[in-house]
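Supplementary Note 2. Why include the ligand at all?

Several targets in our set were suspected to adopt different conformations when bound, so apo predictions alone were not considered sufficient. For every target with a known small-molecule partner we therefore ran a joint prediction. The input for succinic acid is given below.
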Amino acid sequence: MSHPHDPAERARLALKRPDLLREAAWINGAWVTGETLIEVTNPATGKVLGVVPALGEAETQDAVAAAAAAFPAWAARSARERSLILRRWYELVMAHRDDLARLMTAEQGKPLAEAQGEVAYAAGFIEWFGEEARRAYGEVIPGHLADKRIVVLKQPVGVVAAVTPWNFPAAMITRKVAPALAAGCTVVLKPSELTPFSALALAVLGEEAGLPAGVFNIVTGPPAPIGAVLTTDARVAKFTFTGSTPVGKMLAAACMGTVKRVSLELGGNAPFIVFDDADLDAAVEGAIASKFRNTGQTCVCANRLLVQSGIHDAFAARLVARVEALRVGDGLDGPTDQGPLINAAAVAKVEAHIADALAGGAAVMTGGARRGDQGTWFEPTVLCDVAPAALLNREETFGPVAGLVRFETEAEVLAMANDTRAGLASYVFTRDLDRAWRMGEGLQYGMVGLNTGLISTEVAPFGGIKESGLGREGSHFGLDEYLELKMMCLGLRPTQLQDS
Ligand code: SIN
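The joint prediction is reproduced in token form.
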């Protein structure tokens, strides 16, 4: 390798603070390099943006040791002190929003406007949990006997291990790390090897905000050896993962050897239901926002568009017009609405789902093919008449493909929507309040968007039921994932009772 990166690709980043781009892991307050390197490519161009060390078990153990050593002092700080450091971190992230967004677009491919949105979303978790740090209230419970007094304390669980995905290279990190730090835990993070630069830039700013050495550590490298330590080391008290359901199940099983606390945010298969009485414009805009956000690569993306027969054709026509107007392009070159897919495997999956749907009787209304002969581009696509049994309806497609399914009745669509082991997000468009409420209660999902395609925010609990996950992130519930309940029962001496 003459260059560890493509110089033109690096120059295109045009960072105001070039030192935010780090090609090293962050362990115990030091930048750690390694012999073996992983190339990080820009999916828009296929060119190498930079490298990070491919660390393994030994360095992961070092990071866990650093987090364990830093834990007592961090947990002993007052909630206010932790809160103020998180506040400074939030302000620094927002101050460097443009640089962080450019870095994210380059390593992940999402449009720059979406990357800017994600940086603000990521910062929102730091701000929110910095505030929540001061509200980890316990409880006083009336004693069960006259001489008993009971209190419940909330204490940090200890060292937290977090494994995060490539689709939201910053927000999925802060959604875990901010509540952990707020609670008084220390963290070892393994970011996706496809998008490590956003994570490392957050660490630069975290240090500037005042996070002490060892409190927040980042290990870069391949998943297997790092995951093996994080799921089995007894010093890790809590394991939190965002990613696919099969991998989440495997990691959770490994955690049970040392009975770690586990939270999982796994795959979805979101139904997006449009009733005849829906506001057509709102439903189409909701579908665009939900289906095509991050080029279809979110776990809450509409996966199946279930449309009642009376509105079906009008909805389909309007959706196709909107999809054809989406600007597809490299986010670093100018305003865009759709970027590339993350890699060739993602393109192959989208192609396989489309081929399967067409074989089952679906038809292409727009798109349906790769775009260009370089990079990992795919045309924003709409299919109609997708059979309920098609892969597009049964598996998470994770790409820019909207597959329409026609339905007749509310009972039919509710059964169809719930016929899956996934239970993350769902969406309903109707102007009938009774129906909205009935559907909201009947949908077997952790989240329901009623007349909206965008539901994510730091103030609400995010998470799934069934095989879509365990636990909740964001909101005041998200802090509890990093706190243990400790009950203390005080027995009063009889003399004290008599004296009073
Ligand atoms: C995800 O895709 O995992 C998260 C999406 C979100 O936070 O909206």
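The first strand starts at residue 25 and ends at 27. Residues 167-168, 171-172, 242, 265, 298-300, 456, 462 surround succinic acid (CB under 6 Å). Comparable summaries for the other entries are listed in the accompanying table.
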